[in-house]
Each structure stands twice: as C-alpha cells, then as structure tokens.
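Intended use. Records like the one below are meant for learning the mapping from a protein sequence to its folded structure. Do not use them to infer anything beyond what is encoded.
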Amino acid sequence: MKTCHLICITLAIILSKHFALAEIDQHEGYVIGQCLDRFGGPTLENAERLKRFKEWSITYEEIPCFTNCYLSKMFDFYNETEGFIEEKVIKQFGAPVYEVCKPKLTEGSNKCEIAYNGFHCMVSLENDPFVVIDGMENLNIDAKLAMKDCLHQFDRFEWQRFGEYPRFPVREPIPCYTRCFVEKLKLFNHRLQKWDVHGLNTKLSLPLESANSEACAAMSKSRNRNHCSWMYKEFTCFVMSSVPKGY
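Structure written out for the chain above:
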C-alpha cells in the first residue's frame, strides 16, 4: 500500500461527486471520508496534508488519529484491540521493514500514537534501498554487503532512484552503481573480458544455466569506452534472461 495511492483516492473523491470513476476504490474513498469527517472531510486542504504524510513529524500526527481510523477500517494487519499484528505486517511490508520498525509498533501512550508511529515508520522505510536490499532473498550475504557499500559511494539524493532498477530502464538510474557492485563481487573478469556466469548464479541466484543468455554474451561486440554503461546493459540482459517466461 503506497501513501501516494491514498492521496490519489482522496483527490479523486474531491473531484468526483458520486465516486463514479472506474479506477476509484469506493470502499477506500468512503473510509478516508469517514476518517476526515471531523476535520472538514476530504477537502483540498486535507488532501494536501495527506500528500505530505511522509514529511510529517515522526512524533506528531498532523491530522490527529487519522492513521488509527484508516488502518483499522482498511487493513487486517492492524486493529484497535491488538494493534499491529506481526505475521500480517510482515506479509504486507516484509520482514526487514518489520524488524527495523518493530519498536515503533508499540510506541505511544494511546492507540492513535501507536498506529501513527508504527505506520509512519513502515511507510517511510518501504522504499529505503538498504531495507529493499535486505529483503532480496536471492542474494547471498556478500552480494548484499557489496550493494550496500556501493550505495554509500553515491550522494543520498541518488538513492531515491534505486527503485527504478526493477523496471530495467535503458539508462542506469544511478550511473556506475552496477559496475561498482559487479567489480566488488568479481563477477566480471577484466583480463578475459568475460562474465563469471557461475558467480552470477551462486551470489545472485541467477539461473543462467537454464536461461537463454547467449544474446547477452554477444553484446560484448558492441562495448565502448564507457565501462559503466555497457556493464549495466549486459548485466541487465543477464538478469532479464533469467526471468522465467510469462512473468
């Protein structure tokens, strides 16, 4: 569940008098309207306040008790009696996010504070690149450490582009990041100018032995002086070729 989805629904409510648009989740729109009712309803002002959810203070909820109301009516990982339910939180957000935010899931003097502290923490970490890397079950420990170490070599403002990698863009989101962790893991032999296919399998769990990766190897003919660029393209090719057809 993304916070941006929440604000989009809210804005849609404002613009549509009868929840008539097909893409609107009517139940969620109704819940948001209920939770905002004592604050003037789904107004443009409240929509802007929700849009800034991740920027709200870590200890102060800008719309008091909204989170408690919203979560208890919308999801099964939280209710007003039990609070956050461990196994369901893990299913929704993943174990790494749960472990980092675990102390926040019970922090607060009342249910409103607990709901806000816990949810604010999880939503804020949902796209954190270090948490995302920890959640990659296919990587071995060396690969995770290498990827984290390489992130530290780039400015923090570039980290936000880490989430673009799964879409396999033509240009690398964080230029030279792939080359960094590939070389740390010794997945490319510069002397032989060849990829370590066995290493790609053991360290990154890419099942290349059963994949059609010949086209990726053939890309070596078009390499240029921009090592970061061609290394990213070839590595991306190997990753894509390892994905089973139909996914």
